[in-house]
Model the fold of this input.
Amino acid sequence: MEVPRGGYVNLGLGIPTLVSNYIPEEYGVTIHSENGVLGVGPFPYEGDEDPDLLNASKETVTIMPGGSYFDSATSFSMVRGGHIDVTILGAMEVAGNGDLANWAIPGKMISGMGGAMDLVVGARKVILTMEHVSKRGVPKIVKACSLPLTGKSVVDVIITDLAFMTVETDGLLLCEIAPGVSENDVRDKTEADLLVASDLCEMFASD
Amino acid sequence: MSKIITSSMEAVSDIPRGASILIGGFGICGMAHNLCKALSERKDVGDFHLVSNAGGVDGWGVGMMFENRQIRSIVASRVGPACKSYEEQALRGEIEVELSPQGTFIERIRAGGAGIGGFFTPTGAGTVVAEGKETRIIDGQEYIFEEPIRSDYAFIKAWKGDERGNLIYRMSAQNFNPVMATAAEVTIAEVEEIVSVGEIAPENVHTPGIFVQRVVLGEDIEKPIEIMTNRSREGLGGS
Done:
């Protein structure tokens, strides 16, 4: 489990929203949403949706007891000021040195970076959840990002369908691999250089 | 002297062509729909310079101003797919778009409202956002200089307001509004309810009236939901 007990967690747009359904309540984790909510709760029951209570993906949500609302400047003081323990984001490309690209593809309609650039520099730990390769099988974990960057040397942990890796000062460290996947499979699908942890193990085997 | 204006149309009646306007709202949550609608109905004006986190949606709020081709430029952190008329005009290069990271975006407005001449932030260092900007190493980390933003007008959406301009917001609909309220020459607040002076206890005022020049009761109080997510009463599940 990469989320600290009692910690404050921001979930980026897209896939990571699913994570909130898997954080056990006894963990005491508080979910921050950059539009101005601390203590985001589960989706409301049918009929209880409130147009004034959304998360950063603009989904209708609820608020937990002890939660709070605040303006955007205060929200990003929490983000940039290092008060958020973990942010979990998606990625288009990530480099072995922790460079991240997840907001723009040249030549395509660009909608904007939203709060991602603030989150990656401000959160104490940046975790990516992503597919190991693109839909066309091209490695997304590369030596150097070709897409416009979201941040330089900002990523700490990469979790894919194949492996769990950490970004260390000397490079990308392969720590865990998915069941039925070999170290060579991961190497074949990773463009960046990989170091291998001495205690390399199977994913999901520990908490 | 009361700051209450009788209609949204009257509240926006003096906005000239080419004015800069701050518009609050995260998506359409907390967006002053009635003020945007009223301005979109003024066919005599346009070329507006918007500062709004997002481009809105078709047929609602600021989306109506895009539909009527009244926007010359926008500063935003995330604009796009929900507003087709914005997208068409942006792709044809008819709208000048400046993307600013969301935290930087709101801090620039905070600085503008607070009389601060800009600030250094690590956000965007080493990315396209840093291009052409002054950099400085602070505590070993690279920071970039960002300029303040002020506007001629601000469209604020609040829950309750009084004739002195004191405002209170509801839930996450406050988002950019309290900060934007501080950074315009003329701040116009659209409220859902006008209350008597004193009804909002002083310790509960979110935006003190000094920042607000006009208060108007929104005519159309409908609040659409862009993305409806919920769970059935039997168990967990989205829809």
Q: What stands out?
A: The first helix of chain A runs from residue 72 to 80. The radius of gyration of chain A is 17 Å. Chain A has one domain: 8-202.
